Give the backbone structure.
Amino acid sequence: MQNRTGILILTGVIAAICIYFLSFTFVSRSIKADAEAYATNKQGQFDRAKEQRYLDSLWKEPVFLGSTLQEVTERELGLGLDLQGGMHVVLEVSPADILRSLSGNNRDPKFNEALKQAGEDQKTSNTSFVDLFANNFKKLAPDTKLATIFATSANRSKINFQSSDTEVRKLLNDEVNGAFGRAFQIIQARVDKFGVANPNIQRLPGSGRIQIELPGVDNPERIRRLLTGSAKLEFTEVYRLNELAPAIEGMGSYLLREETARKATAKASTPATGTTAQGNSLESQLAQGSKKDSTSKSDTAATSAQGTALTQLFLPVGQDQLGVYLKDTARANAVLNAPEVRSLFPADAVFAWDRKTFKATDGKEILPLYFLKKPGGRAPLEGDVITDATNDYDDRGRPEVTMNMNAEGARKWKSLTAANVGRPVAILLDNLVYTAPNVQNEIPNGRSSISGNFTVEETKDMSNVLKAGKLPAPTTIVEESVVGATLGSEAVSAGVLSSVVGILLVFGFVVFYYNRAGVIADIALLVNLFFLLGVMASLGAVLTMPGIAGIVLSIGMAVDANVLIFERIKEELELGKTFKQAVSDGFKNALPSIIDSNVTTFLTGIVLFIFGTGLILGFATTLIIGILTSLFAAIFITRLLLEYYIRNGKTLTFSSTWAKKLFADSDFDFVSRRKLYYTISSVIIGAGIISVLFRGFGLGVDFKGGRSYVVRFEKAITTDDVRNSLEGVLGASPEVKTYGGTGIGANQVKVTTSYLVDDNSAGADKRAEATIYKGLSSLKGNPAHIESSQKVGPTIAYDILTSALWSILLAVAVVFVYILIRFKKLAFGYGAVVAMFHDVLIILAIFSIFNGLLPFSLDVDQAFVGALLTIMGYSMNDTVVVFDRIREYLNENRGKKESIPTIINNALNSTLSRTAVTGFSTILVLLVLFIFGGETIRGFSFAMLIGVIVGTYSSLFVATPIVVDALSNDQEKDNGTPTTIEKKTGFDAIPADFTSAEATTPEEFTAKKEKKAKTPLIRPSQS
């Protein structure tokens, strides 16, 4: 072996690097185990806060090789959300709000209608929002230039009223893209300061979206506030209620008139013998108030206040505030924004809600309301003057935020506080009043603090967003997934178990089949696994459940390279070569097939990496690294180990006694029955098409949009009971499927619904979850808990679907081009592409036909697309190995009289051993993943399992027969003569025991028929 010393040095260097980076993982896990032990008392009760204090005490302390615990944690091989719980979020910067800002908040109805329509169009289009808006605006106002909307004083330096629509479009696209870039930087700064270990933040190219993964977080609502708050900080004066007394009294009169009119309408439409009003309605309360007025003069003042419509909606809660019951805030917003009411208040008066509710004596939640002074609609001082913000404690030990302002801010703040001594000044963040303290005295130096009823977490988050800066536009969560820690720990257990069992079975099978040589293959596979994990750790990759599947699958597929090498060595030994020469020639002959087969899978992995997100991205990363490490281990490590035997004068056996003659004399006729195989495939695909037309697919939430919840019950539950309990509260029947378990005995279900999917308001997720719990509460005696949740908006669902289709087409195109370059004949390209489409259509048919019939989910989602692409890669791996042997046979038989079908049939038989061993090894691994891998990847592993079976079938019975037909047709066109025995001999009948196309003349036919029973077909080599 050439460069043996160099290979040994390279192996040692890679091993050292892997050990270095993996050591951080072991140290981090050890410290976390110590923290868990410290936080667990003798009774086995775990205190999470105590664990966190232990970790915090070491966070900035050196714990390993001069690295602090924070640095060690950042370098460990992190676990994905599905393995430790956490939150996955895709944010979209609101382009509509950016355009509104650029227009100076233009109120033109056509402008606002165009924005609204663009938002609807974006749900089913990949066109940029700006172009959708411009197209809609042109339809609504064909004679109006865009410049009339956007040529404001703020944009004067860039466009004017004479600017063309093209120039305005360019400005708008530049501003939207620039805002997206700034938003990414701000979100990144906020997340970095949040303190999550191994966060993953990335821009999704061409989409204006930001993907964020936060492992281990257990407070989704806090994360939503952190990511979607625009950090618009304002300081403004507060109106006292006595200053607005006439307006508030007028608002009471408005409410009273409105309620009187409503009661009159209701009375007119109700029969005399009709039902009475409900006791808790506003009309009923007003009526009760009137009765009390007539019966008790001593309570006149109180009952008068209770009886007025004003106090039924707005409650006095302080000297400068009103309050509203939380359930009535929507009604209060409608009243306050009514033009008649708005005209009662001063022009500079605006209203704002407090950030928190408080409980009244009756237990109901009340939300305080403030009336603020904003001359011209702007606060006198905003957050752009803040230079620094930190969380601290006030002199009473309460959490607060301390701020420093620049010179301009200090000057304005001094003026504002001086003018309001003894009066409240409100501090707002994102239009919510965080505090409104009375000013004790003038603040001259620009340093002040925000104090109130805050928690430490709230002050940390507030100082974080203030330091990170203000977002250029509000952000919307268009996709969200929350995985509970319990579900994550179960996934870890399932993943580790399936991995260990799968790898041990593969190792055992390799030794069982290849005897002592199998031990060398197993050592190479172990080195491959060690290098794979080490490289992942060095790249900062995150291990996910599909990533574990990728590791186990890469081990299974890495067997293929060793199989190719060992089969070639066996062939060389059978030709009588020495062990040393057989090893050298075996590696040389196997290398083209190894390279070709792995390159096709690698290209598929690249497509997955480019188009995949979340779990699929983790799988693609593992697959790509696994291919590279398996190539290194098979080509170099296996060779080094075999060279050791050669140097010591030893030899190896490459097959066990039972396997030695298993495929030695195989003479299966693949070619002549190709029409039968075409028919079988066509029937399955046809059945699939019919099933798709009438039954469709079970689309996952990421393809159709909606909300999905994994719900666990204390006892077994049926899907019908869950569906019935939720139908009333959700307004429509949700989709409910068993998630884990087997039907009737399952205590876990997956609920998918479109409830509130278009609602992007701050509290929509919380309301949706509360509605689910409300419906499930009707299942008495069987408490439920939401283990994980997912939300995908319609826009991103469409984008995911289209990107999935493009990724499949791109994978087909890339592999076709590679095969065309390598094999230089269109016939091989046709065979490969048809086989890939064949495999895809078969899998789609199975998922449609058996959806709802099997006791696990067969949803078509992103994980399914990942499985589909991997199946295509595996199918190409198998097909290319077969094609390599066909190419070899065609070259060696060039000029001979054997027909193309005969040559190809011989080639298929010679590679049958490799196809069977590799296919069985991979199927063995996937079977273990399917049984033990857990519900997270049950559908994924099922698709892979069926796909490997179908891929192996297609490489032998679809791809190769197509090559036979294509090459035979080409030869007939070139020579003008037929190539099959039926046409060449002119025989009326061919014996049933003799395959077609085995002779070129009648004499050869007779001679071969006589020798057929005695001598097997002569082949150049056996694999």
Remarks:
- The radius of gyration is 36 Å.
- The longest strand covers residues 365-373.
